[in-house]
Amino acid sequence: RVIAISGCVAEKLQNAGVPAEKICVVHNGLDPNEWQPRDRSSWRENQGFARDDFVFGCLAQMVEWKNHAAFIEAAAQLRADQNCGRARFVIAGEEYKNGEYGRQLREKVNALN
Q1: What backbone torsions phi and psi does residue 14 show, to the nearest 5 degrees?
Q2: Distance between CA atoms of residues 35 and 68, nearest Å
Q3: How many angstroms separate the CA atoms of 29 and 8, rounded?
Q4: Distance CA 94, CA 55 (A)
Q5: CB of 76 within 8 A of CB of 107?
Q6: Which of 3, 36, 56, 80 lies 20 to 30 Å from 47, alpha-carbon distance?
Q7: Do 90 and 47 form a contact (C-beta atoms < 8 A)?
Q8: What is the pTM of this model?
Q9: What is the arithmetic mean of pLDDT over 101-109?
Q10: pLDDT greater than 80 at residue 97
């Protein structure tokens, strides 16, 4: 057996010659209690968010196949909606290699205001 942490990894393994019947997808597990801020108000304050802002997050390694661009485009659409004035958006993740993808994402954010 070969364990893949996602369907994308399983597909890459198959493309590399590993037989599909030998691949088992086991997603990473998280304890949600370990990932909740203990003091949300200070986190919000540090980010410049108000208490009643609704915060959307995209938490993933900054690589193209995670498609952060789709998150940015969705954020721009929501921000254009009058009923979503308190929506805020956060992308957090380690930049991969030289940071070019992160630069491209920042340009997209600026272009979409």
Answers
A1: -60, -45
A2: 21
A3: 17
A4: 20
A5: no
A6: 80
A7: yes
A8: 0.70
A9: 92
A10: no
